[in-house]
Amino acid sequence: MASDLKSLEQKAQQLLGEHKYEDAGDLYFQAARAFQKEEKHNQAAICLAAAASSLALMFGQKTFQRIAYLYEEAAREAEVSMDLEYASMLYKYAAVSYERDHDYLAYSECFFRSKESYRKFLFFDLFRASKKDDNVEIKFNLKLVGRRLVPLITLTFSSLVWGHGERPHRTAFFGFLLVLLCSVLYTRGHLSRDNMIIKPDLFQATYFSFTTFTKVGAEYVIPIGFSKAVAVIEAFSGLFILPLFLTGLCRKYLRF
Fold this sequence. Notes:
The chain is mainly α. It has helices spanning about 1-15, 20-35, 40-60, 65-80, 85-100, 105-125, 145-160, 170-190, 200-215, 225-255; strands at about 125-130, 135-140, 190-195, 195-200, 220-225. A 3-stranded antiparallel beta sheet has the order 4-3-5. It has a two-stranded antiparallel ribbon with strand order 1-2.
């Protein structure tokens, strides 16, 4: 079986050299399906990517749904085989193909998965796991800290806060949680209202928290002591979270 697959790949490469792109693409696709049955996901990913490239060469600058689909399937196979850097690249190719076909929902999903695959690659590159005597050991790779740690932190923050620009509902949820958290903290402190110091209940604290976060502001309410620090942090966070939400919303839905 292995020799048959090898000859199939060689024949596909030969057809590719003869500029018979459609036939080469079909053979690469057959080889990919055979590798999938044997659960050789890395080889399947390479063959699917080669099939997509063959079709892309055949159609020139035009792109079609099938090419994007093959790149996406190849990326999934690369993910299963834990070749995450390769998966990230393939998802990016799929995203570009979907965008040219004006399939923006599929583009959004592939773009998101491309970023997530690369984020996972950075994580597993920094924290390498090894198995010894049925025990899994995780080692921190100090040599890669300079190149991997900052991009990993940036991508993790981007994923959590707005899903790399493709999940604006995450930003709304994050902002909502921040408002609620600050509301609880305000109930632990004091506010000044009409020259009177009050200990706000949850409703009053939530109102003050919302106006602080959105920069509307309640002129007659002033934080005192510990509440001042909470208000500063919340207002500063709102400066970034609200624009991120609007940017993500426009980025995702104005494509249509």
